[in-house]
Amino acid sequence: MRLSSPNLTHNCLRIALFTLSLLLISLNAPLAQDAETAPDTAVVNTEPAADAAILAPLPAANVIAKDLPNDKGGAVLVSWELSPDDDGNGKVSGYLVQRSESKDGPFETAGNAVRGATKFTDNKTDDDKVYFYKVAAYFEYLDAADEKIRITSAATVTGPVQSSAQWFNMNRLYVLLFMLFVAGAIIFYIEKAKKGEEIYIRKIAGIDAVDEAVGRATEMGKKIFYIPGIQDMNDVQTIASIAILGRVAQMAAEYDTWLEVPVSKSMVLVTAREAMKEAYTKVGRPDALQDAQVHYLTDDQFGYAAAIDGMIVREKPATIFYMGAFFAESLILAETGNSVGAIQIAGTAMPAQLPFFVAACDYTLIGEELFAASAYLSREPRQLGSLKGQDMGKGLFILCIIVGVILATFDIWDMSVIFVSR
Amino acid sequence: MEMISIWIAAILTLGIFSFLYKDNPLYKACEALFVGVSAAYWAIVFYFDNIYKKFYEGAVTADEPDYFLWIGAILGLLFLTRLIPKIGWVSRWPMALIVGATAGLWMVGYFVSNAMNQIGSTISGIIVYDTATGFVAWGETFGSLVILVGVLSGLVYFFFSKEHKGVFGATAKVGTWFLMVTFGASFGYTVMSRMSLLIGRVDFLLGDWLGILR
Fold this sequence. Notes:
The complex is a heterodimer of chains A (422) and B (214). With 422 residues, chain A is of the alpha/beta class. Chain A is 42% helix and 20% strand. In chain A, strands 1, 4, 5, 7, 8 and 9 form a six-stranded antiparallel β-sheet that branches. In chain A, strands 12-11-10-13-14-15 form a six-stranded parallel β-sheet, with helices on both faces. Chain A is elongated and about 85 Å long. The model of chain A is unreliable at 1-13 and 15-49 (pLDDT under 50). Helix content of chain B is 74%, strand content 0%. In chain B, α3 packs across α4. Chain B starts with a helix and ends in a 5-residue tail after the last helix. Chain B has helices spanning 2-17, 25-60, 68-79, 92-122, 138-157, 166-209. The mean pLDDT of chain B is 91. Chain B has six helices and no strands. Chain B has a domain at 124-214.
């Protein structure tokens, strides 16, 4: 890029003055005061204003303040064009964003933006108030006494602007569309299943083994332990676990096998008891259920693990289920169960714990298999239709990935923008 | 006093470690102590955090009481109806609310983070060029290809309504391999972090307790 000669002269002069001022600062030389040469200039740790005359960067241009779109209110987006001095030569340290409820001020600091930034979101606005903003580029340096000196450029006021909430986050429009597709597919296949159409579900070894595991405990005359994880009912894995517990409890009730469920959360205790009660009632044996079958241990993660380890080695259950959300206790539990020769079936969607269950258990339900288990075990048309509908969603995603990758490879269109949520 | 604390902690640590040999009375004592103390501790934490600080100070003694907290309090009380068999069924209401609200709240969150964002991250050009030279960066290109194949085959593995045979089955098999390799890497990484926990306890026993390590 060619510079016109007046610009060249101007820039050379500025660079010379900038270098000179740094030299003077390093020599700790006193600087002359001339406040008049620094219009609308704020100096932190008020230093001689001549500094401002020499070092004040050129201001940011075209400052615009507008309501932040697609939000719940309480935020204003301020944008600007970079100061001509913000060219990577260190003449601009950042931008000071100030706001006021009146055009004439007084202005308070809304925040700072780093050099090179062209926008700032003020997240602390009141939707009932009107604001004016101004943005100034600033240069910061340490003086001889190691005190930070900030010299700001001139700044023009922009506004008024008022923040407001939006009913719809249009950035998530594609999320809505994809969810509608998946939900539509689920409803469609549920209806089909209800009409008697057979829905094929592939074999899932871990779930097929549930029958075998309950039967084994019955034959051996030993207990079944069901561990629903250490999360509360506000975790979908725990909800899925309780749904599976209902199916396991039904089998245990049919075979008259003792099923014990030690829990670590009071809410899970209540829900598990309800699920067990329903299961035992369904097979006509409500009296066989005892409160002691579902019992609370402790909320503490390792206290819970220590207690279950003790129970496992003392009572030597024939079968242990680990279904739900697990953390560091997963291997402690599964290894102890393995040591007493119990048949173990685990299921979790915690990626970090799956390897431990795969290593120490006989069968492991990986991620989504945990959520599919309930449908698979129950064979209810409604749940099977739901599984099929979800598969249609996965099919759509596979198609999108293939098309998106092809478009991106040939540099036609970056399709990822519709998937990345903002 | 500090010495007593260290001795108690050391004995309890050894008591828990003794389980590695076999179940024994010391482990049983440590286990009972651990379970009892932690259950009591959490009961107090929940009481102060939720009932006292959140509800009592927020809805009863606050200058501007938050009356919405009463809804939570009433739902909490409904749980106690289980103690009265005749109206025990009422306790299902708060339970149903929690399960339903959880499913609803997480639906969008999971869909965005576990599906949409993952797909968005997978979609990129397979052929990656070196920005400096303009030539194909073979390493990065291979990496993007591995991610693409891993994601697609992984998704195929989690298809439940189609039999895994033929090309579909082979793709699912590739997905299984990707999962197992990932699990192996994760296993090694996590075991190393657990080792640091063990080192921490051994450091306590040999350093703080026995004073062998300085």
